[in-house]
Design goal:
The chain is built from three helices and eight strands, in the order βαββαβαββββ. The chain is an alpha/beta fold. Helices cover 23% and strands 36% of the residues.
Length: 137
């Protein structure tokens, strides 16, 4: 059974793709909030990983502040995003092992394509990824 499509506003999609293009040698990462069930706002967070070219680790203080802002605005956590500068838009073994929010969409942006940026969504539960179809709204 195919999971239902998830709508991502074009404004957020454009913002994510732009952030990824600004960082072609290191993974970007952050959170997306939702309001009334719809993706609403992007919260970029610095990548604090020791090797940011192929791994992401959200800077803890910024992640805490973003989550606090989301709660204070009456929003909810909608998605966690990151980029793969030199790999496909598929979860890596590290992505699968580190996924800690099974109810949250994981968005991966790939810069590994010729002239076209790719973004795909996944639900990761118990180190198993299931792709979720995305539509631009």
């Amino acid at each position: 059974m195919q999971p239902p499509e998830i709508a991502i506003p074009r404004k957020i999609t454009n913002q994510l793709l732009h952030l990824a293009q600004l960082s072609p040698d290191a993974e970007i990462c952050g959170l997306i909030s939702s309001y009334q069930g719809m993706a609403h706002q992007c919260y970029p967070i610095a990548n604090a990983a020791e090797h940011p070219a192929d791994k992401f680790l959200m800077e803890p203080g910024q992640q805490i502040n973003a989550m606090q802002n989301i709660r204070e605005k009456g929003e909810e956590l909608f998605a966690i995003y990151h980029s793969h500068p030199k790999a496909p838009a598929q979860p890596s073994a590290t992505d699968l092992a580190m996924a800690a929010y099974p109810d949250t969409l994981n968005l991966i942006i790939s810069l590994n394509t010729k002239g076209v940026l790719e973004m795909r969504g996944y639900r990761i539960i118990e180190q198993q990824a299931r792709e979720v179809p995305l539509i631009l709204s």
